[in-house]
Design goal:
- It is a single chain.
- The chain has 348 residues and is of the alpha/beta class.
- The protein has a single domain, classed as Alpha-Beta Barrel (TIM Barrel).
- The chain is built from 15 helices and 13 strands.
- The termini are close together.
Length: 348
């Protein structure tokens, strides 16, 4: 299997979607039969299933497509996507669970995801879920997921039960991810909590990219990226608003250094250029601006499958970017992922 995987990673016809969500059907079955022990239960209402984390509803009803593998493969084929790096629905992060339950739930989810991927190794790779409310245990789960289960990284939310991503307690997790040189996908969670963003679908249209902006700024100004220079982090939705406000961040670094430079020895611009960004911007002009800022070598193909605000044809979106060279297109579709996680071969 290893030889097949390596050959696939260097096939220039390949394409990798790094932003695609999945709940294995085995996970839903486990939650319906053993949810009380795991801390995540399923409630049925009007023919739809909703998840309760520690008894509290989490997110909208579960999208059935999250567990529908045939529909996923059909959508991938239609879009020309060869491989998805699948990650959990972020509403299932379960960071509010007690540590022991969070650890138990994450292991169950990751084992189920690994089994799904093992059955379809040519089409799927995994980004695990980790119990970030218990950072040392999250680091251990990440190591298990990568070294034992064959995952290529993890998905993490933008906050952890009210804590920001620069919280010093999270350093063991960042250190483990840095040591493994795996991919971390930062995804908005509980976006702009407390703000009135439900009208006009602003909770998704505006709050999600704003949430990513705030979280990424904490990673930058909190010095996380300086302390762990080998981190490989991709911020979804084109990085929120930060790539387009980099001048404002640099100005603040110079003009208000007492507030902004406590943990930094370099400009925010340099830190942001070490990050990676997906292509889910829905506009070739905006994507061109992102590529001009970050470089084609730091942009990764994404779809946000299977949600309504996803890009159903991400390869066509990249092709529509004006003036993009074939070399840069290949980097975005496949080359960057090959460079980032090609050393992490499946172990099952």
């Amino acid at each position: 299997m290893l030889q097949t995987f390596v050959q696939a990673f260097y096939d220039r016809s390949m394409s990798y979607d790094v932003h695609a969500h999945c709940i294995p059907s085995d996970v839903m079955a486990a939650l319906e039969t053993d949810g009380d022990r795991l801390g995540v239960t399923v409630a049925q209402r009007n023919g739809a299933r909703r998840l309760l984390i520690g008894g509290t509803p989490s997110g909208p009803p579960v999208n059935p497509a999250l567990a529908d593998l045939p529909a996923r493969i059909r959508a991938m084929d239609a879009a020309g996507v060869r491989v998805q790096l699948v990650s959990s629905w972020i509403d299932l992060a379960a960071y509010t669970l007690p540590s022991s339950q969070g650890v138990r739930f994450a292991r169950m989810f990751n084992e189920s995801l690994a089994q799904l991927i093992a059955a379809h190794p040519q089409r799927l790779r995994g980004l695990c879920t980790v119990p970030l409310q218990a950072p040392a245990e999250a680091a251990a789960e990440l190591r298990h997921a990568v070294d034992v289960l064959g995952m290529v990284g993890a998905e993490v939310g933008t906050t952890v039960a009210g804590r920001e991503l620069d919280d010093p307690d999270l350093d063991p997790f960042w250190g483990a991810a840095s040591d493994l040189r795996c991919l971390l996908l930062v995804h908005p969670f509980n976006a702009l909590a407390g703000r009135g963003v439900e009208r006009y679908f602003l909770n998704n249209l505006v709050a999600n990219p704003a949430e990513s902006t705030i979280a990424t700024a904490h990673l930058v100004f909190g010095g996380v990226l300086e302390r762990h220079p080998d981190l490989r982090i991709c911020v979804v939705h084109g990085g929120g608003f930060l790539p387009y406000q980099v001048g404002r961040l640099d100005r603040g670094y110079m003009a208000k250094s007492g507030a902004t430079a406590t943990h930094l020895t370099e400009s925010p611009r340099n830190a942001l250029r070490r990050l990676y960004y997906d292509t889910v911007l829905h506009d070739p002009g905006a994507l061109a601006a992102l590529i001009a800022f970050a470089g084609a070598d730091h942009v990764l193909l994404g779809s946000d499958y299977p949600f309504e605000m996803g890009d159903p044809d991400p390869i066509a979106t990249v092709a529509a970017v004006p003036g993009l060279s074939e070399e840069d297109r290949q980097l975005i579709l496949a080359g960057n992922v090959e460079r980032l996680v090609g050393h992490l071969a499946p172990t099952r």
